[in-house]
Every structure is written in C-alpha cells, then in structure tokens.
Amino acid sequence: MERLIGIGVSSGIAAGPALVAIQRTQVIRFPISPDRVARELSALERARVRSSEQLQQIRRRIHELKGADLAAIFDAQLLILDDPMLVSRAATILCEERVNAEWAVQRALDELASVFDDVEDPYLHERKGDLHDVAGRLRMNLRDGKGTTRDLLQDLDTPCVLVADELTPSVVAQLDWTRIRGFATDAGSRTYHTAILARSLGVPAVVGLHDVSQRIPPGASVIIDGETGEVVIDPLPGVRLEAETRARLLLLRSTPVRDAGVPLETTDGTRIVLQANIERADDVAGAVAAGAEGIGLFRSEFMLVGGPPDMAAEDEQYHVYRQLVERMAPGPVTVRTFDIDERQLARPLVDAALDARWFPDHERERSGHAGLRGIRFGLAQPAIFKVQLRALLRAAQGHTLRVMFPFVSSVHEVRAARTLLAEARAELEARGIIADHVAVGIMIEVPSAAFTASLLAKEADFFTIGTNDLIQYTLAVDRTDDRVSNRYQPLHPAVLRLLRQVRRAAVRRGIPVSVCGEMASDPLLLRLLIGCGLREFSMTPGALGMARRVVQETSAAEMAQLAAHVLTLGTVDEIERFLHAAFDNRGADTEVPTR
Ligand code: PEP
Ligand code: MG
Fold this sequence. Notes:
This protein is of the alpha/beta class. Helix 2 (68-82) crosses helix 5 (122-143) and helix 12 (314-328) packs parallel to helix 16. The protein is globular. Phosphoenolpyruvate (PEP) binds next to strand 11 and helix 20.
C-alpha cells in the first residue's frame, strides 16, 4: 500500500482499478480481462497488416515521384515493422501483462528505442525517428477510427479511476462519468478549469500529484479522496472499508439546502447574495436547489468544448442563453463572453469555431494564459464576438441577462467592446429585432484592471472580481503549475489590498461588485471577504450550502474589525495565524489590537 498527497479539488471518494492515460503522447493503458486477450491480439495483427499496406503504398508513390533513393526510407520502415522486437514483442507484453495493445506497442517501442540509444552508429541513431514513425502508425491503426481519448475511454470493461498526466477540460467534459468514477492527475491546481468542471460535474478529483501517472500501474487498485487530496495505491482491506464509509457520509452531506428560498443574512442582519458559477445550462436546477439566487458566472466558452462545432453559430448560442434565463427566472444570469484560452480548450473544437488563419500552428502551441484570451480575443475576432453578442441580446428579451467581458486590462478595451455591442444591436435592429437594455459588466482579474478600477467603474454597469486570475497575475504564479501551487496565496497582502481597492472604486461609483473566484468558496476566506465589505458572491454550486451556513453564523461587523487588522499585517503567515486563532477560539485570545 502506498499513499500520495495531492490537491483535492472536487470532493467525493472514488475507488476502483486504475486506468492510466498519458495525454502528452496520447497513449492509454488499461488492464484487460483474460477473454479480451485474443481480441486485442487480432487488433494488433490487423494494425500491422494495415500499416504494412500503407507503407508499401507510400513507398510506391515516392518511388514514382522521386526515385529509389528516397523510397528506401520506407523500405527501412517496412523492415522496422517486421522486426520481432516491435510487433511480436508487443504481443508478448500484451499476453504476459494483460494490457491493451496500444500500450503494449508503446512499451515495445520504449525498449527498442533504448537499444537504438545504446549503439554508437550515427546512421542507426537517425533511424530512431523512423521507429517512432512506425510505432505511431501502428497506434493510429489500432485506434481504428477512434481517434480521441474520449472514444478510447468508452471501451472499458469495468468502471475505473482515471489516472492521467494531464486532462484538458474538453476531455473531462466529454467523458462518460458513469464508467469513470473519478480522476487523479500529475498536473493541475484548484482553480484550473479542469478542476472547476470536475466540481460542477460532481466527479471526485485529486490533482497536482507530480508523477502519479508513472507510479500507478494500470489495473492497480486505487482510492482517491477529493476532499483530503489523498491517493491510496493498493489499499489494505481496512483502508478500503473506511473509504467506503466516508464516501457514504460525504453523499449525505451534499443534500440540497432546506431554506434555499429565504433571503440570506449575517447574524447582524447584513444581506448577502449567493449565486452560482456554472458551465452548462443543465446545471441551473442544481444551482437553484443549492440555494443560488442567480447565475453569477456562466462560463460560455465551455459551450465550445465537446459541443457540436456549430456552437459558434448565433441560433445555437441563443437557445443555450434562453434556456439559462428561463430556467433561472426571475433570478439574474450573468453570461461571460468567451474567455477562450487556446491551451485550456480542445484544439480541434476551437479550430472549428475560430478562423484557423488567426492562430498559425506555432502560436497555438504556446501557452495561452496571458495571450490572446478573453476580451482581447473578442476584439481581435469581431465577427465571432458579434455573433455571441447578438445571441445574448436576443436571449435577454424580457429577462435579467447581464453580459460580462473577461480578462479586461484597459478602459480602451471596454469602450471598443461596447462599440461592438452597439453594432450587434444595430444589426439586430436591421433584422427587425429591437433588443432590451442589458447591463454590461467587466471581470476584474488582471492587476492593471484592479489598479484602474476607479476609471473602469465609469465604463461598466457592474464589476465581478475573478480572484482565480487576479491572484495568479498579481503574484506571478501560474495557477495550473503544481510546482508553484504553494505560492498561490489568496491571503497575500497584495491581493487583499487590490480587493479593497476594487470594492471601494465600485462603491464610490455606485455599481454592484461581486466575487466569482474560488476564494469565495473557502469558509475562512469568505468571512474575510465579508469583512472587506463584499456582499455578493458567486461560486461552484457544491460550495453554496457551506457558504450559506458560514454567512448565517457570521457577524459582518465583527468581520470588518478583523479585516481591518488583517490589512495591517505584513505576511501571509501572520494573517493565517491571526485568522485561525480568531476563528478557532472565537475571540478568546484574539482581541483585535486597537491602533
Ligand atoms: C477567475 O479568474 O476568478 C474566474 C472566475 O474566471 P476563470 O476561473 O474562469 O478564469
Ligand atoms: Mg478568470
């Protein structure tokens, strides 16, 4: 038995045999039952025959076009394909270790590649590229038209726990979660979109485990605990039993709140509004049951993930927005325009939605976090942006639908986006559609926006503070990089000062301000935010029950005193110690010092 500790990002406990997916090389390994061995062996043989036919065909064509010298490359590849160290060896691995054919090919390739590494001959060294090429062809033919991870994961004998190096939101959005009980990944953090999606789907998940995909053999029994962040490999029977009991308790805890319709107040009568962050129109009912008074953040870009490619079309979007407002009525819905980040979303789907010329291949490979995302993308691609704006204006008729721009970093961007909104309105008018007024807000999630909040407040009808990004950009800590996750500190004095500044700017201008980052779904941080004068919060529906209880037990006046002191402290350690003492002892030895 071995225990690993990562970051629990979506609570719940999942147990079962491990299915390991290496996304970077797109290889999946899973255990197969004895009666499946013959099926996998014949798939391997079919893939070999097909690969051989394809290579002969390529060889013939190159021979005709460019002559025998160049065609010899493919003679060499045909020889590699027939080498007993590759396909025959893969067959042996498949039978002995009872793993899927694709993984067996990968294993045989690794063994053969290390032989090539050991020889000194430069000619043979160069053949290594051909070896990878041949193995890639074999794997492609093994997939037999089932190209994506999602397709491959449908092919499971028993429900599994997915263990991967990384998982994109698009894969998570498309998997059949009745067959996969939860997941654990090497990469990731609490605020990564994959984690956010896991919470909204109610799938237990642990991320940031560094090398879990290398450590867990396929088929090994694993338990993951999305609350504590613990992963147990080959658990002892007692540990397994305990996990099952905890899983049942967690299920009981997640029952819907009873007083969902009652307006929420702190102990001293301060009204607090809780709304939900969602990614799919289907999540509205769950959000309402959990006590949401509205949708504070609809991450519209998730419509492009796993949906039909025509989700970029106006009518399709209109139907989704319309479903949202109708299901949430009379509560408000805030739709954030596409916060497209090329790295986080599935490339093929984004490609379908975007003008492919806009991102040359090398651009698409780069991290998109601080690149062309959010409002920058909308302004650079006005045609795509205006389709979305028209769909939103149409859907808003007779309902409270607010439009919000993500990743704003200047006044100029807001004005330009408003101009496009006016154009979208005029285009609808030309079609005989007179759209209602919609409130236009901005996300404050980039430090430049926070610093210029008083200027931006003149341009916007409301602010929503996106603490996930605001923290990462203020502290220069990539929120998806598990190696620096300990530096991602919501209690950093810089973050708290910025929050205070943004709130003040909104209050002075008389516009509403809410917090929609994950910060609000931590009980301790939520109290502090209330102490900082914030009154509206939007969070993952799963956290609403907790937030409701916290608000009902909190005095806003007491928290304001506490927050005032916190803002005088210099380090995260001091702030944490002070807050823990305050909340653990309920004021006994934590008198707020008077200055
Ligand atoms: C945020 O940045 O806090 C936020 C809510 O947006 P996202 O996590 O989708 O970037
Ligand atoms: Mg953000």
